[in-house]
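Q: How would the C-alpha cells look for this protein?
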Amino acid sequence: MSLHIEAKQGEIAEVVLLPGDPLRAKWIAETYLESPKCYNKVRGMYGFTGMYKGKKVSVQGTGMGIPSALIYTNELINEYGVKKLIRVGSAGAYQSDLELRDVVIAMSASTNSNAFSKEFQGVHYAATASYELFYKAVNYAKKQELKFRAGPILSSDTFYENSKDAYKQWAKYGVLCVEMETAAIYTLAAQYKVEALSILTISDSLVTGEEISTQDREASLKDMMAIAFGTIE
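A: Here is the predicted structure in C-alpha cell form.
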C-alpha cells in the first residue's frame, strides 16, 4: 500500500505528468484535462486524472528535490503501474544563449546528489531520458516550430549555492540548466524498465540574473505543455 498516494487501483493513468509544485499539478489538470478528478490530497501533494484527446492522463505533484521525487516516482511505478513519466517543470539557465521562457528537453541529467551513491558503490550512474519519449518530443517540437533546446541538465540538491560562480563549471561542459528532480526520475525509470522524460521551461538565468515573475510563470508554460502533450498523443 502506498504511504503518500491515496488513489485506488485504476484511478491513475499509465501516463503521468510530474510537476514539482502540487498547485501547478492542479492548474495543469484544470487547464488541459477533460473532467479531471482529484485522486490524492495526502500532504497537500495533489494528483489528478482526466482525459486528453481521448487518452487517460494523470498529473501528480512530486514536491521539490530528489528525495521527494523518489518517493512519488517509486510509488507511481510500483504501486500503480505507471509506464510513462514526464516531468514538466522550471529550470535556471546555465548558458548565455538560453532566454527566459525557452524550453529545454533533457537528454541526460547529471547530479550532485548522493542519493544513489550507496547503490552504485560510489560510481556515478549516467541518468538519461528514454529514447522513444525524447525522440517524440524533439520531433513534435520541430514539426510545430516550437523553440527548444535539447541536451544535458543538472539535478542539484542545492538551491542556494554559496558561490555565485558555482554554475560555471557545469556550463563549461555544456550543461544547459539546473533543476532538482530529473536525475531521480530517470534513474528509477531505468531501474524499473519504464519510460521517462523531462521537459523544462527556463524561469530564471544564473548568467544574467533575470527571472520570470511569479504571476507570469503559468503563462510561460504554454510551449512546454504543448510538447509534453504532443509527446503522449
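The beta strands are 15-18, 34-40, 47-52, 55-60, 84-93, 103-111, 127-128, 148-155, 177-179, 195-205.

The radius of gyration is 17 Å.

Upvote if useful.
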